[in-house]
UniProtKB/TrEMBL annotation:
GO biological process, one term: cell wall organization
Domain PASTA: start-end pairs: 606-665
Entry's Gene Ontology cellular component terms: plasma membrane
The keyword tRNA-binding is assigned to this record: no
Gene3D superfamilies reported in the protein's UniProt record: 3.30.10.20, 3.30.450.330, DD-peptidase/beta-lactamase superfamily (3.40.710.10), Penicillin-binding protein 2a (Domain 2) (3.90.1310.10)
Name used for this protein in its record: Peptidoglycan synthetase FtsI
InterPro entries on file: Beta-lactam/transpept, Beta-lactam/transpept-like, PASTA_dom, PBP_dimer, PBP_dimer_sf, PCN-bd_Tpept
Lineage of source species: Bacteria, Pseudomonadati, Thermodesulfobacteriota, Syntrophobacteria, Syntrophobacterales
GO molecular function per UniProt: carboxypeptidase activity; penicillin binding
PROSITE patterns linked: PASTA (PS51178)
Amino acid sequence: MKPNQDRARLRMEARLRSGCGLLGAIGLLVCLALVGRAAYLQVVQGGKWREIKVGQAQASFQVPVYRGTIWDRRGRPLALSVQRGSLYADAKAIESPERTTRVLASILGVGRRELRRKLNRESRFVWIKRGLSTEELRRVSQARVPGLGVRMEWGRYYPHRSLAGQVIGFVGVDGMGLEGVERVYDGVLRQDPRKVSAFRDGGRRRVWIRNEPPPVPQERYGLRLNLDAFLQDVCEAALEDAVRKHGARAGEAVLLDVRDFRVLAMANWPPFNPNTYASSSPSSWRNRVIADAFEPGSAMKIFLMAGVLEAGVYGPEQRIFCEEGEMRLASHTIHDVHPHGWLTVRDVLKVSSNIGAVKLAQALGPRRYYEELVGFGFGRKTDVDLPGESAGLLRSYRRWRPVDFAVAAFGQGVGVTSLQLASAVAAVANGGLLGKPRVADAVVDEQGRIIKSLTPAPRVRVVSQKTARRLREMMEEVVQPGGTGTRAALSRYTCAGKTGTAQVVDPETGRYAPHKVTSVFVGFAPAANPRLAMAVVVHEPEGKGYGGVVAAPVFRRVMEKALPYLGVPPDKEPEDGPDRPRLVRWDGGLDWAQGPSVRTAPSSSQAQSQVVPDLRGLSLKAALAVLKAAGLEAVPKGSGCVVRQQPAPGEKIRRGGVVTLRLKELS
């Protein structure tokens, strides 16, 4: 039995050794697999799992960089970024679409059909209305309708309402500039959000554990314009009064600094408020100063005279027979408003003789006249930094029939814009150099420090200094007794200019309408040492719409205020009488105030009072900027947006007084 037991024991030991070897091999294989898997995860897929780890502990979010402020040349805000609530809905969480539609329609003034269409979607997010007013936001919050939410967004606010509305333009709901300066400089004013990372807790809430405070929304770059809010207001007020007084269809005015072609004011009537662009017609957005071409009438005689003097065809004292007011040309008859016999060249311009102009043009020749007009910038864009500019209409002299050439001598059959006309006259004023008008002056940071100056383009000589000087002297006589522009004469300054009255083509018949005209005055001041040039255009005034009657007084009213405001010293003795201007202060500048006006600078008796602007719905920054521009101080209480103010909007307060602002977080 003993040998059998030994053999059994040996077999058992062999099986044990075999099992242990197998287990060892399996263990080794498992260990190798685990090591290989760990190496694969850590080496091959290490980057992926590190990202997952970071994603669970950290979150990235975007910090808004809101649209930059647009300032006028003296630091007054023309366009600001403010926070506004926008209403959205979770359509699946709406308990009663019909009730929600009824409530929102009464609060927001939105059509029920449009609301019903949005709320019936199978969507967890749909915009109901962007940019709620303070009152709408309050009423929506009080309604407590399930499924609705408010998201605070950065929107655009224009504190001066319609002031320079067509020039500044507006921004759409997506934050993109759509018209005016907002559109041209969109790449400067609109910046991409900053991407920032932060830690998250177990509830996936952002936790900021760094030493520095969490980042807040900020402004990157703003824009300073050459536009002056005061001069813009003066131009708009004078233009509006002229349009209303004469029952006109529309009007434009543009004011340039003749030294560097900076646009100090650019006015359109009817006005446009960019705060309410969505409810305005697209035609009201159009900047007519640069977009609408018109026939300028006798204002073009300036440039005819420039060509005649430059070519030496006639001198200012040489005489021309003006046919006693009636001249036949083929089958056409050319008339003067008043019949004249012999006139000197300077008198042809002074009394605005069409017949004299035609004879001068014939002596100059069509090619030379055409080249003179092209040289002064007609028939091509000025390249101003605004969208939608028209090149006007100037056909080649090769396509002129004799009658086309004749009427072009006194501004018919030629289409120009108000800016083209002002720029060309500015070239005469400054000694013969034509420049490119500029609206924007510099890119600035949040504190108004210059980041980049927008240097004006070099000027180009279009006539000699001698010709420009002689032409200025001739234009000065236009506003003196016996000239057509006497209503443009200034009390303390010399000035020069030219009137224009052009027939208007009826679009239905293609012929000149018998009782529709365009009234024009273009000029500069002071005459001997010009600083400002201005073009005034009034479309289709009622009655006798002569440029000297309708447009010239606008020039006078604006220049009487603008020149002292800019510190230009008077160059002639003051006129006697009750309308003699007085020197007063306006927002750090000087202004000649002439009698009562709802939009002029305050008189000495009113200088201590100021109307309180409406600040409700604005952020603290925007409210402070508006109050600063109005010369008022602020005492803010709370945080967020302005919900109440004391004194109330529209009340009068002592200049330099204090406005208390009650602020509240609206989100």
